[in-house]
Amino acid sequence: MRNLLAFPLLLAVAAEPAAAQARPAAGTPTATAAAAPRTREMNDLNWMEFAEWVPARVRTVILTVGTLEPHGVANNGADNTAPVAIARAIADDAGINAFIAPHVPYGITGSMAPYPGAVHIPEAAYRAYMRALLDELARNRFRDIIIINGHGGAQTAVLSEIARDVALEKGVNTLVVNWWSLASDVTLRVFGTDGGHAGINETAFIQAIDSSLVQKSRYTGPGMATANPAPGAWSAVPFPSAITLYKAGSGWPTDFNQVVADRYYREVVTAVRELVAGTIVKWKVAGF
Ligand SMILES: [Zn+2]
Prior knowledge:
By secondary structure, the chain is α/β, with parallel strands linked by helices. The chain is 43% helix and 10% strand. It has a single domain (36-285), classed as Rossmann fold, CATH 3.40.50. It has ten helices and seven strands. Mean pLDDT is 91; it is low at 1-32. Bound molecules: zinc ion. The site of zinc ion has 6 residues, from helix 4.
């Protein structure tokens, strides 16, 4: 992904030969004249570079969050793999122009926490930690805070609530994106069915990012899946399957087709890109 990130910067430099000639000699600070930051990753910027870009030329930060929990035959960290890939794919789009905050990999796992390798953070601790983190992103003078979430359940409600509170109390703009829900239309279009947690949709998304993370030889069929209960119908801990279906009777992985997975990835990223860029431009038009 780093090579992909560097590509637009190379293009920008190649397109400006006159400007390049006018630049100061090597060793002289040039960041203030650069068309794009050296990196989009907050982890990899130093404090002087950060000050040169935020808030004057970068007003948006993307924070990715997920959790560690079983995902059928995909990796336990699928909820981390997905939002990180999305953020890296969209951060340097002209209409987004964001820095990427370090990822938060532990979340409110809940009923899948008993599975091997899963980690569950209790809701009160998660809420307090994430609220403190959003406050810090606002204090660092980001105007738009975009949260791309990889994990469902209670975590989605907590994120929406604290994002709303930080927006109202700190005067910043916040957007929470739950990618698999945003992409429900894409899932129907590409697969002809609804998906599920670790279902055909999420498994394909991970396969497109890194096919080695999906162990299809371990897949034994729909017996590995359980449909989500109707609200109030039942609950079980641990949840009886590591693949859960949005609707009974459909949504489990089928043929692990790489071409279809790649198409799904592209269309989902496009949907997230359009939502984020569209929201930022509407905030600006509305004066926020
Ligand atoms: Zn997941």
